[in-house]
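Dear support,

I submitted the protein below through the web form. The confirmation email said the job was done, but the results page showed an empty box. After a refresh the structure appeared. I'm attaching both so you can tell me whether what I see now is the final result or a partial one.
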Amino acid sequence: MSINGESDEFEKSLWQSAEGLRGPVESAEYKHIVLGLLFLKYMSDAFEDRREELRELTHDEDSLEYYVGDDDQERQFILEDIDAYRAENVFYVPEEARWDNLVGRATHPDIGSQIDDAMRAVEEKNPDRLDGMLPKRYSRIPQDTLEGLLNEFSELDLGNGKDTQDEDVFGRVYEYFIKEFAREEGHRGGEFYTPKHVVELLVEILEPFEGRIFDPFCGSGGMFVQSHKFLERKGGDEDQIAIYGQEVNEATWRICKMNLFLRGIDGNIQLGDSIRDDKFGNLSADKIITNPPFNMSEWGKNTVSDEDPRFDYGMPPSNNANFAFIQHMLYHLDRDGMAGTVMANGSMSVQGVEGEIRKKIIEDDRLDAVIALSGELFYTTSIPVCLWILSKGKDSDEYRDRSDETLFINARELFESIDRTQNRLTEDHIQRIADTVRAYRGEDSVGEYEDETGFCKVATTDEIAENDYMVTPGRYVGIRQDDGDGVPYEVKMEELSAELREQFQQSSELQEEIEGNLTELGF
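What the results page shows now:
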């Protein structure tokens, strides 16, 4: 089966084979086993390619650095010189960790322990980049499962596309596997994966061509990968961006680091809780692209000071982190910076303390656009979500002054149904939404902006105030209205439904937590 081209048939076939070998191993555990082995295969293939290249150079009289003639001892020294690999951004893989050697021992009863030792050996040879990063839990996995995976992945040639004519085959396989594991894990999968089409939309809107790119809830690094692809498509210069990320889950942090390494993306990815332990306290980002957990409770309100400068607009309630996350983003934006984030729909209409915070953000002219998306876009939740686009430079934008203006887009009808429970945004949907935002900004690459009834509308801050600072797009773009309080029936139902579904989800999560606690207690 071809592994080139746009089709994902190869990734799908490989996934099905790997899944067939899982046996009794839980998906959450198997994820780290499989992704770790894929990364080891990638490192080993890249190492062997570089080793063969070095061997040829030692015989090449034109190679001033490596030619050694008939001196086999010097040739062997070069082949084992770690710096010769590091110079080409290739990890040095010690002999006991090389793929072919592990495959040769795949039938041994202790192959799991040997893989753990191999991971440690690779870390020891590359401490500056891999220290403590690789998974080491293979000794707990059945031997036949590991033997099957070693043999299955042996069919891959991930050595920089030398034979595959696809330099990103490993990245494609890795991304596909992350997506499928997220699908299997349901709402827990949202901790590490945002659907690719949603990330692509955010990246198209934010257009990260240069500067400091920050994701304070970076999961498996999808925002950085799509930003990297955006630059490739647009002919941008990767040297003009710097990547910063923070992830609270240690296992997910490892996946993110591996994901970036295999794409050749250099980034500063820190482990820790962004609210409780902000690793980038002094960072001012040009672009923030992120998807924090929806409606997260217990976000650590009792751990932050009332004087914490991140919460100038007000201290959010302890049972919902949405406006803690939004303010964390605003705090880290440069004076001309922009942020794009996924939010639960309740953030657009919630009242009380959160409503007051939203009001202050709007009055401070930080809200640039709100985009309502359809439901069923995430594996992790069926509730509709929205995008908040925040800006600190509406009055100094390179295209036009957008002071006291906010763009509303109702894109709830833009989706393609994959199956009964899953929708997605197509390329046409993404471009329509992104081009509308660009037109609103006044970019030259698209036509002049015009309000479109039922789809988009630019509202002034005064108009938003007249709507009690609720920012549900349906309130502004114009749809059928009832004869009551002037609020469109669909909007009222959307807001009520969103709040109800979020409460259902919180109830479900609480039930799972209680069930887990009871299980731990032996009941």
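Response: this is the final, complete result; the empty box was a page-load delay. The first helix runs from residue 9 to 20.
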